[in-house]
Amino acid sequence: MGKSSSVENLASTLFSSCATLDFEAYPSLATIFEPDLDPKRIVRDLEAFIGMHIIPGKTLLFMDEIQECPKAISSLRYFKEKFPELHVIAAGSLLEFALGDISFPVGRVDYLYMHPLTFEEFLRATKREILAQVIPEFRAPPELFPSGPVCHKLFDALREYLIVGGMPEAVVTYAASNSFLEVAKVHDKLLRSFRDDIPKYASGDLQKNNLLHVFNSLALGIGREVTYTKLYDDDPKRTKISVHLLQKAMLVNLVHSVRPSGLPLGASRDDKRFKPIFIDIGLMQRAAGRTAQDVIKSIDLVAAFKGQIAEQFVGQELIARERITGDGELYFWRRSEKSSTAEVDYLIVRDGEIIPVEVKSGTSGSLKSLHLLLKIYQNVTHSVCLQVRYDTSRIGGVSFMPIFAKL
Predict the structure, then answer these.
(1) Which of 67, 162, 208, 389 is the most buried (most CB within 10 A)?
(2) What is the pLDDT of residues 36-66, one digit of tens each?
(3) d(CA 324, CA 316)
């Protein structure tokens, strides 16, 4: 449950009917696209096949699991050019792999990437709309900051989110059952599905075996700079291919090291230095072998499991927002010297300003890496430290905020 249910919900709101073509469930649908790619002929034959009228302006034509029918992907340009009055949406699993083998002109198809639900969306989905509205925002006036009791409620809800995550089926299951055990079943099913599907896009048994090992290792490597040899004791070239296959499948995001000397940040990107962020925090916990009880028992959510949970949460939230507000990439800073190593968790850009983000327990005096960055890069004047706290404060160039604050 995710992309398909979202499209069908949209159709129920805006259209009189929805004609859904599931190419995975009904492979014979692909034969309708074989003779030619004339959209009006295709619609005529589809009406006869599915037994319903497809009416422009009233019916949404939804091509689901379209990666199973390359001809249908190619037909999208002709629907745009020759039948623009008909609304068409296509969705697929690991669609990026299918698109690599198909050519169609840029500009005729709009893409929409779906990410797991953010913490705010999780609150809304679990009928806590009012609580979602008071999540504090970076740079919001101090008088809008929620009170201590409200912050406590937000932290209680955050603990739930760290277990459930944002995969739509997991959230729907939790909203209906209020059971972490039922959510774990959903996570297990999704992880099995990923492990079954991904090897289809790897060549050779050695690469497939490597891919599965790397997938499992990445769930344990959140928040740490990794190398290919550390991920899996195998041929580094194979491991590199596995990492990029997982990135292409959007099951993992790579956070690359950059220097915050100027914009764009990506200009100084170091492709050899990266940290992984898993697709979803709930799935990450399950893949890493953690239980709901492990998270519930954690006193300091930022310090728990060497900070991995907190860094995954913040990274996941930033990635979801950067897809809308930035270049879709997330970065961090690392300085390696013989005498000392410094690292700041994330770098983001807001209103043309580079803002370092640390996810950390402790006081201002313990933020050595963050203070060093501010000292080296004079163009960076402000930074954020996210913590388990129930208020906000500013010391020098550092703003201290609750970890759930919207940046």
Answers:
(1) 162
(2) 999 999 999 999 999 999 999 999 999 999 9
(3) 13
